[in-house]
Design goal:
Elements: E1 31-36, E2 40-46, E3 51-56, E4 63-69, H1 88-95, H2 102-110, E5 121-123, E6 132-137, E7 142-148, E8 164-169, E9 188-194, E10 199-204, E11 209-214, E12 221-227, H3 228-232, H4 241-248, E13 260-262, E14 268-275, H5 289-294, H6 303-311, E15 325-327, E16 330-333, E17 339-342, E18 351-356, E19 360-365, E20 382-387, E21 396-399, E22 408-409, E23 411-412, H7 416-420, E24 426-429, E25 432-435, H8 443-452, E26 455-458, E27 463-468, H9 472-479, E28 492-498, E29 504-514, E30 517-522, H10 525-538, E31 543-546, E32 552-557, H11 561-565, E33 569-570, E34 586-591, E35 598-602, E36 611-616, H12 621-632, E37 638-639, H13 642-651, H14 688-696, E38 700-707, E39 718-721, E40 724-735, E41 740-748, E42 757-762, E43 768-775, H15 785-788
Helix pairs in contact: 8-13
Length: 789
């Protein structure tokens, strides 16, 4: 056979698959990573030779380190440093009463460290750039207390406290395990380690908490439980995932209103309180002998047999395959109804926290499947802890801004308790609990109050970033599509932010506070990361610091919002009054008089009505809300939730991330082409060349639809002309004002002419169609005369 018939030989052994994973999986052995929140502190035990490396993540953040030896004596020389600060920043934090520092206070007391006269090692400062580092090495055993001090941010000085990242490189690796079991959330009642390929049973008292921990990440665990009283009577009613899915109307419960798991008698057994992973399975059985037999692994250890063994002492009848909650098991149903699985989403230390609603007999496994990606091809251990019911664990899910970011648990906004007086219906939104609707009114009444009177709503989850420094204007000019150079002090501009290919990162508002001072308010944390990364790449002298938790905000919207606010807001003589404040302008102000709570008032909103937003520190939130609420009684004020907000913003043609735009959508396709002044903005900006090309050769357009049917239309429904799909619904609602179903839709430009008849596909897109017509966008007040009135 001619040599040309033989394939070309690739010399050498095979190369490993290239896989990019979050940093948690790629830290070298003996390396630990911590994050000190802005205005926070932590204690790190140190051994001789351990190295401490601090990173000033966002720049401009002071760091204080107090070192103490193993006898509790203050000793900065332990880290090779000397006292350069009196440590007042850390001391002020500890005296603040901040509940998040309770563990630190207990750690300091347990080690008998006296901070009264302690000095600190100070590093970094106002001028430190983002990414600046400092390293210290311990020459003896002790602890390092690391603080990122900061108080209440001055809205005009923009002095937000920001995080520090701490890497600890241990001189001696004491354990062969890859990851240590995380510290407990409180004093445990039970500390139970479930080794790989085993299962263990345990008892939990009614009201107590159950924490299921994935120690090394990428590991599944099956969980099952029985009401102990039923078992005592010989009734083996296990937790039933089918009943649960039916009652909760979700694939699996998550923290919030719909968080319970039930047995077949519809008796609730456990409630999910916290979840740091967010991806589980409640469809498949726990792995069983037949599964392995059928794929060629007869005799393989399996979770169902392990369950049978662990439950035998409780008199539970053995089963060939166990229904269970398969925590961390990553499954999904595709459009053809096929159930597939892949590696878990869970990271090292991820957990689910549940509360027992009755006395329980529980069983947990560490799944042994090494034949598929179900456990990342490497089965590892699971850890179980239980805690007393007296502990106060808040409902929360984990939120990560980027794959490498530390998880942040869902928080309550500064206004939460004020709104909680009017509703218990809160939903998780962007890392916070927000009211969805209010019991006394409901979305329709809230909608009408916004259109006719005035409403107050919580928008605190909006992400805020302080952009400061001599190159701040140049950075903003390059990042945002709007012409920032033309903005006056006190002006607000609505703008887009794009990738180089023209797809949108975010939309939001940019506030100009001064020549070198800006504030970006958008929907995502990543927008701030993008701005900071761009500044670093270009070497610009500008700091980009998150201030989201320093500025919580409510919106007061509706025709009577101005008349309400002018009664309660004071502004300095050189600043505009409420009556003088123009559309898309802002001003520093105070509640009541010149000694009142400091706020920033902007004439902006997301409702299509005359409206304002009030920004304040969370500590002042209740004062601000009470003033608005009390003055609002004369104006028919109504609290408004997310459901009603969605209605008014769709009518007004205001777009929403993830629905009306994504990183595959440019501003022209999102209906906000006016934010891209290609002719009048002479300076270059990210995405400019791509946007010029995309504007010249458009393919899709956002349009309004009037739907000639009362059948509900939802995001993602297909839009057809005949057999061909020519677009999809992005947002929709039944308009109380217009008396019909309306929608926003993105369609092919060839079919985007006003008056074009289309059909919205339901079911499979063909068996049921709803006639619709393309109409002007937006449906309500397209010239924006009401917010400008």
């Amino acid at each position: 056979m001619p040599e040309s018939f033989y394939p070309e030989i690739v010399a050498g052994p095979p190369k490993p698959s290239a896989i990019i994973q979050p940093r948690a999986f790629s830290l070298p052995p003996g390396t630990e990573r911590y994050v000190v929140a802005g205005g926070g502190a932590l204690l790190v035990p140190m051994e001789t030779g351990d190295t401490l490396t601090l990173t000033n993540d966002e720049g401009g953040q002071l760091c204080e380190i107090i070192a103490a030896d193993d006898k509790g004596r203050i000793d900065p020389a332990m880290l090779g440093g000397s006292t350069t600060s009196n440590g007042d920043g850390l001391k002020a934090l500890l005296m603040s009463g901040d509940a998040s520092l309770t563990g630190l206070r207990l750690g300091i007391e347990a080690r008998k460290i006296d901070l009264a006269a302690a000095g600190a090692i100070a590093c970094f400062g106002d001028s430190s750039p983002a990414g600046d580092t400092a390293s210290f090495t311990a020459d003896r055993v002790g602890v390092a207390i690391i603080a990122a001090p900061g108080g209440m941010m001055d809205f005009e000085a923009q002095d937000a406290a920001t995080p520090l990242t701490v890497l600890v490189k241990r001189a001696t690796i004491k354990s062969q395990v890859k990851f240590e079991v995380p510290e407990p959330l409180a004093d445990p009642v039970l500390d139970l380690h479930v080794y790989t390929s085993t299962a263990k049973s345990f008892f939990v008292k009614a009201g107590d908490y159950i924490q299921i921990i994935d120690v090394d990440g990428r590991q599944c665990t099956d969980f099952q439980c029985f009401a102990a009283r039923k078992l005592d009577r010989g009734i083996e009613h296990a937790l039933d995932v089918t009943t649960t899915r039916t009652l909760m109307l979700s694939a699996y419960p998550m923290p919030g209103l719909h968080a319970k798991y039930y047995d077949q008698d519809m008796i609730p057994l456990v409630e999910v309180v916290q979840d740091t992973c967010g991806r589980h399975d409640a469809f498949a059985l726990a792995c069983a002998a037949k599964y392995y037999d059928d794929i060629g692994y007869p005799g393989h250890v399996n979770c169902s047999d392990n369950f049978n063994h662990a439950l035998a002492d409780h008199g539970v009848t053995a089963r060939a395959g166990w229904m269970a909650i398969n925590f961390f098991f990553n499954t999904a149903l595709d459009e053809h109804g096929q159930l597939g699985s892949d590696e878990p989403w869970s990271r090292p230390g991820d957990y689910v926290l549940m509360r027992a609603l009755t006395d329980l007999i529980c069983v947990s496994s560490a799944c042994p499947d090494d034949t598929s990606p179900a456990n990342g091809w490497n089965p590892t251990d699971i850890h179980v802890r239980t805690y007393r019911g007296e502990e106060n664990f808040q409902r929360a899910v984990a939120f990560r801004a980027t794959p490498d970011a530390e998880p942040k648990m869902t928080k309550e906004t500064g206004f939460h308790q004020s709104f909680a007086k009017h509703t218990r219906h809160f939903v998780e939104y962007n890392g916070y609990w927000l009211a969805d609707q209010f019991a006394a009114a409901g979305p329709i009444d809230e909608y009408h109050a916004c259109r006719e009177k005035c409403v107050v709503l919580d928008l605190s989850p909006l992400r805020k970033f302080e952009i400061t420094g001599p190159d701040a204007e140049a950075l903003c000019q390059y990042i945002f599509t709007r012409n920032v150079k033309k903005m006056a002090d006190g002006q607000v501009s609505y703008t887009a932010m794009c990738y180089p290919h023209g797809g949108m990162i975010d939309d939001g508002t940019i506030f100009r506070l001064g020549r070198d001072n800006f504030r970006w308010i958008g929907g995502s944390d990543y927008s701030g990361e993008w701005i900071r990364e761009t500044a670093a790449e270009l070497g610009l002298k500008a700091l980009v610091r998150s201030s989201t938790d320093q500025q919580h905000n409510i919106a007061v919207q509706g025709p009577e919002s101005r008349d309400l606010l002018k009664k309660i807001i004071w502004t300095a003589p050189h600043n505009p009054t409420v009556e003088e404040l123009a559309w898309f302008r802002f001003t520093p102000a105070r509640i009541g008089d010149d000694q009142g709570a400091p706020i920033v008032l902007s004439r902006t909103g997301y409702t299509g009505e005359l409206g304002y937003e009030i920004f304040c520190h969370p500590l002042h939130a209740s004062t601000v809300f009470d003033a608005v609420w009390d003055a609002g009684q004369a104006h028919g004020i109504t609290p408004m939730g997310l459901s009603a907000l969605d209605m008014v913003r769709i009518e007004a043609g205001l777009i929403f991330a993830g629905y009306d735009f994504s990183d595959q959508t440019d501003p022209f396709e999102a209906g906000i082409g006016f934010t891209v002044p290609l002719k009048s903005k002479e300076d270059d900006f990210i995405g400019r060349e791509a946007l010029i090309r995309r504007k010249q050769t458009p393919s899709r357009k956002l349009v309004g639809l009037d739907i000639d049917s009362a059948v509900d239309v939802v995001h993602g429904d297909c839009v057809h002309i005949g057999r061909a799909q020519i677009g999809e619904i992005t947002s929709s609602m039944r308009s109380p004002l217009l008396g019909r179903n309306i929608a926003l839709a993105r369609v092919d430009v060839h079919h985007s002419e006003l008056g074009t008849a289309v059909e919205v596909g339901k079911l499979d897109g063909h068996q049921k169609r709803l006639p619709a017509t393309i109409v002007p966008f937006a449906h309500y007040d397209p010239k924006k005369t009401r917010p400008q009135s």
